[in-house]
Amino acid sequence: MLGSLTILLLCQLAGEVVVRLLGLPLPGPVVGMVILFLGLVIRGRVPTTMEQSVRAILGNFALLFIPASVGVMVHLAAIWAEILPITAAVLGSTVATIVVAGRLMQALSRHKREDAA
Amino acid sequence: MSGDLTSIWVYLSTSPLLGLTSTLLAYQAAMWIFERGGRSPLLNPILISVSMIAGFLMATGTEYRTYFDGAQFVHFLLGPATVALAVPLYNQLPLLRRSWAAVLAVVLVGALMAGGSAVLIAWAMGGSEKILLSLAAKSVTIPIAMGVTERIGGIPSLTAVMVMLTGVFGAVTGGWILDMARVRDQAARGLAMGIASHGIGTVRALQMSETAGAFGGLAIGLTGLVTAVLVPLIHSWIR
């Protein structure tokens, strides 16, 4: 567990360094994810201990979003003042995006399968 | 006696212990409710925990900043957990090898759709510029969304709220929306959840299947990337 956590933190650290060196408009952890992914591709498999630790961490992924989300309480007044446009924008765009992205991906993968068949 | 309790509260309310403990307690209570309710997406654990904590803070007159002093230890783990998404992604490597071109195309269309339609809808309904700018990046993971919003002159903390609302709405309704749209393919379901509702949608996708979770995780990074590059560009064209 400790070893795996150290590797995750090292990848994040490397990600932060790359982002700052290259001036990328990306957060360090996302670049860290790419670095770990490349590392796994080079190594050719996921070590068992890492598989277990990652399962434990991602099993409680929801917990990690709570502190930032509680920040909603600070903006209640600003949100309330424009509740209609905000609600319509969030609901409408989310439904549209899920439908379009889901249908498009399904169509493209089906197309691919028919090509292979 | 009540004097003692008051002084204990005065001590606890300023210590990080309370923010951290209340976060873990609320999360476990929410997970218990979620499991008891047959894992219904309506009982979204993040929605329930946030309501409980925000309600508690407002009822006790505690400031968000005081709460966050303790909760930041949990918040910090968001970084390593984002890195950890590389593992389910790697486990999907064979699938990814076959469909990377489709994934890239769908992410490009989806990311433009997510930000573009949100801004257009809010604009059509008379939303203020402050709201429009804070909506553009609302479908991507919190650290990217806040960074992008800062670049285009929106209010980052307001964006964090939009990100949260988008995530919870997508997580709660995404399964039904995908069923209604007859999207059965697990890769397509996960990708759509991740593009529209970032990490919170991906938590839901992980509950659907491991494949859906992996494509959700993939979408978080790619949609974030596309949004981080395109939103400031498009904003500078429109100006």
Automatic annotation (TrEMBL), chain A:
The reply on keyword DNA damage is: no
Q: Which residues cross the membrane?
A: 24-42, 54-77, 83-104
User: What Pfam families does the annotation carry?
Assistant: LrgA
Q: What is this protein called?
A: CidA/LrgA family protein
The cellular location(s) given in this protein's UniProt record come to: Cell membrane
Principal localization reads: membrane
Listed A to Z, the keywords are: Cell membrane, Membrane, Transmembrane, Transmembrane helix
From what superkingdom does this record's organism come?
A: Bacteria
Q: Which GO terms describe its cellular component?
A: plasma membrane
Q: What is the lineage of its organism?
A: Bacteria, Pseudomonadati, Pseudomonadota, Alphaproteobacteria, Rhodospirillales
Which PANTHER family has this protein been placed in? HOLIN-LIKE PROTEIN CIDA, HOLIN-LIKE PROTEIN CIDA-RELATED
The record, for InterPro entries, names: LrgA/CidA
Query: How does the protein associate with the membrane?
Result: Multi-pass membrane protein
UniProtKB/TrEMBL annotation, chain B:
Does the keyword Metal-binding feature in the UniProt annotation? no
Its record classes its membrane topology as: Multi-pass membrane protein
Signal peptide positions are none
Q: Which residues cross the membrane?
A: 6-30, 42-61, 73-90, 102-125, 155-178, 212-234
Domain of life of the organism in this record?
Bacteria
UniProt keywords, alphabetically: Membrane, Transmembrane, Transmembrane helix
PANTHER family with a match to the protein in the record: PLASTIDAL GLYCOLATE_GLYCERATE TRANSLOCATOR 1, CHLOROPLASTIC, PUTATIVE SEROTONIN TRANSPORTER
Q: Transmembrane among the record's keywords?
A: yes
Its subcellular locations are:
Membrane
Instruction: Please name one Pfam family that this protein belongs to.
Output: LrgB
Output a single Gene Ontology CC term carried by this record. Answer: membrane
- Protein name stated in the entry: LrgB family protein
The upper taxonomy is: Bacteria, Pseudomonadati, Pseudomonadota, Alphaproteobacteria, Rhodospirillales
